[in-house]
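step 4 of 6: structure.
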Amino acid sequence: MSERFAEKMHDPEVIKDTRLLGDFSVIYCRGVHTDAVRMPLVSDGAELGVYGDALPVVCAECAELLRYAEKRRAFCPKDPKPFCSYCDTHCYKPDMREQMREVMRYAGPRSMLHGHAVDGIKHLIEGRKHKRAARRAQDTDGAV
Ligand code: SF4
Ligand SMILES: [Zn+2]
């Protein structure tokens, strides 16, 4: 693990976002990967105590995504940072991006029932803004 990563992982905003990602992944994994074997996450972020005492318990596939997402979040150039699924300069590899989109799409609305009312609503609002902007861009492209 690099020193720079460890340093970034002490930023309260990075910790908050990474924990949220962990919680969203747990909601997604439980709901979608129903038959998978789940274990407490092993990652650099977990080692640094980013998730506190409650490590995300997820399957191997979700753990891989979370390990990747920890790195992306730590080095995110956006400030303020949008939800990754609505970011205009997406820094994820295409397959990871698609996976994260699925996680957010599934867990975003459900997170409101799992102690994330504010984040769930924020996700909903950002999603609507994103859709409106995409529609406007389409209309502009279609205009003569
Ligand atoms: S996708 Fe966008 S918001 Fe997410 S980490 Fe990458 S640059 Fe930051
Ligand atoms: Zn999973």
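step 5 of 6: annotate
 - The chain is about 60% helix and 5% strand.
 - The chain has one domain: 3-142.
step 6 of 6: archive
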